[in-house]
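Figure 2 data, in text form.
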Amino acid sequence: MKKHISKNLDSYILFNAIVLLIVFHFLNEKLEILIAIFGLGISITFGLRQNKVENDKMYKELFTMNNKNMIRNFLIS
């Protein structure tokens, strides 16, 4: 379950922002608060997605470097 949540964390944050948006709408709160909450959810979602992309790129580079070193060491041996 924890792996599923961490995999889809951005979807959960966006969903929660939409739910808060609807709740605030029915409570007749100010429109600025609703827009701010929705914007915050979108910002956090895109930030987490960008962080995941950067981590994937880093691991790919490390994996490629490690494979090159292993191949070079295997050929030398």
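Caption note: The radius of gyration is 21 Å.
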